[in-house]
Amino acid sequence: MAGIKRYQDGSRSTSVKKAKVDVSVQQQKLIKTTVRQSVLPSPEDSSAASEDVVTPKRKVSQTNRPANLSTSTQGGEVLNGSSSREAHAKQKVLVQERKAVKPNADSIARAKKIWERLRRKSHVPRDERDKLITELFSIITGRVKDFVFKHDSVRVIQTAVKYGNLQQRRQIAQELKGEYRSLAESRYAKFLIAKLVVGDDEVRDVIVPEFYGHVRRLIRHPEAAWIMDDIYRTIATPEQKARLLREWYGHEFVIFQSSADSALTADLHQILMENPEKRGPIMQHLKEMTNHLLQKKTTGFTMLHDALLQYFINCTSGGPEATEVIELLKDDEEGDCLKNMAFTKSGSRLVCLALAYSNSKDRRTILKVFKGVMKMLAGDAHGHVILLTAFDVIDDTVMTAKAVFPELLCKESEEQQRQTELVLQVEHLTARIPFLYLLSPDLPKWLLPNQDTSILNEIHEIRKTTSKKDAQIRRQELVKALSQPLIDLVGQQTELLVSSSFGCQFINEVMFGGVGEKHAALDSLAAIARGKPELMNTPYAGRMLKSLVQGGPFDKESKEVRVIDPPLRFESMLYSKCHDEIVNWASGPNSFIVVAMLESPDMRDRQSLVDALRDQVHVLQEAAKGSGSDKKGNAGTKILLQQMEKSR
């Protein structure tokens, strides 16, 4: 912006320098903000102009300009605020005129008006919306292709898909047949595919086949790659997924695909077994495609993870091909590849295999990549198995404990927040698995899904040749580092844990498998049993107390209770707190807890218990007979009466 010439002695130059302005119409806005102002001499100072001293120019802001200041145009006319608005209005008119001469201009304009109304769903009554949708379909029917490749009008088609019925959606899908690859490559139209393909198998079977033969191109396209991978991951049938994945194996699998072959497989091992001579070209083509995406840092595709897994499991164990894959994974400085893979089925399995086959240094490198996301891994349906693999194969348990447990145990949070987060974790179906996996030497069948069991069995076979430390010693060292915070949690959040079935399972596993001071936690459990009797009437709370009284888990193979060492001796502690309620327990839902007390060899107050029951034997007899809907009677009470008869 031009400055203003000022003079120290008050004199002024008799000549006024004209403002230099850009005369182009397109830069009128720039002219307004870059005008040059000249200060005219005042009459008083004209006689005193003896010596001109020029000071540095200063900028004049738009807000400080005089109100009557104007700018010059080409013809010397003054362009003020009103004329500027007129120029903008003329430009808008020109734009509208240009749009009007385009094909379907009126239809697109009316459709956009309808869209403006429909998109505010809460402001449009149902009857009016139905009328607008009918009108909208009357406009777009037969002309859908004219709408979908424009960034503004494609929204109209998306709204039509959203509010249209099944037949109308299929009509749109049929009109776009043959254009889906182009739509997937469009920055805006790809979202239309996402709306069309969900919830209708017929439309899905129209769209997905149009990707066949173009996977190599689409997976590298910045727009199409994500929509194709979303379809592959979420709604494609197994046969469609196999066809898409097979294109990673070479051009032959693009050209020669029989549409009638419903038994098509993408299992590379099976393909190589049938055609061993094709191993070299297939592995080379697969390597090139995966490396291209890895180098571009586009590692979030499920299809890529599936392809990498197929490549890795068909490499020779310990060979240069397998080693190269591990090097690619661990050399990613930001770790994006490993982090993305950890949350998909194939990707998590590949990370587990990489941990199992790597040396100790590489295992440490891979595990450190997940710093900051350990809790996310623990709560993910696929990611948690990576933690279990790390527990099973890394010999340096001190490093493992320092890398994993602080995040899982929320040690950086405030105490109350830490306990709340821990309770949420141990009561979560998946997030509790890393805790309970270590605490149980013999895993309960209810803990791990079959998929996890299969992966871990594979890992256990590999670690026989890649890990040195004994598995039991490794587990015990990790349990020692993990146990005490969990035992303390049982003592501090007893009521919350007892109120849920997962919480009761967690209490049992911690008390039986944990190593540390348990007296405070057991005392809190006994106090809750007395102070909150309503919590004890649930089946899961009753089973928990019964197991704690028995002193260990029940072994289904030996049909006996496996008492832990050192023993808990919870039965005497519980009886001392709840002896006033013992008859109600013996005749109610918790009768088997009292049976376990009588059968426990470590029960110090056994005679006192028997005497208390004998004093109210008539109550027990009534419960054993049953009444009303419970005609069979209380099974636990019957056993108690038999035990009392034997002890006479």
Automatic annotation (TrEMBL):
Keyword Transcription among record annotations: no
SMART domains hit by this protein: Pumilio
Pfam family, one: CPL
SUPFAM superfamilies reported in the protein's UniProt record: ARM repeat (SSF48371)
Region (Disordered) residue spans: 1-88, 623-648
Biased composition (Polar residues): 24-49, 61-84
Coiled-coil annotated spans: none
One GO MF term: mRNA binding
Record domain CPL: where: 431-558
TM helices/strands, residue ranges: none
Gene Ontology cellular component terms for the protein in this record: nucleolus
InterPro entries from the UniProt entry: ARM-like (IPR011989), ARM-type_fold (IPR016024), CPL_dom (IPR012959), PUM3 (IPR040059), Pumilio_RNA-bd_rpt (IPR001313)
Known role: RNA-binding nucleolar protein required for pre-rRNA processing. Involved in production of 18S rRNA and assembly of small ribosomal subunit.
Protein name: CPL domain-containing protein
Species the sequence originates in: Endocarpon pusillum
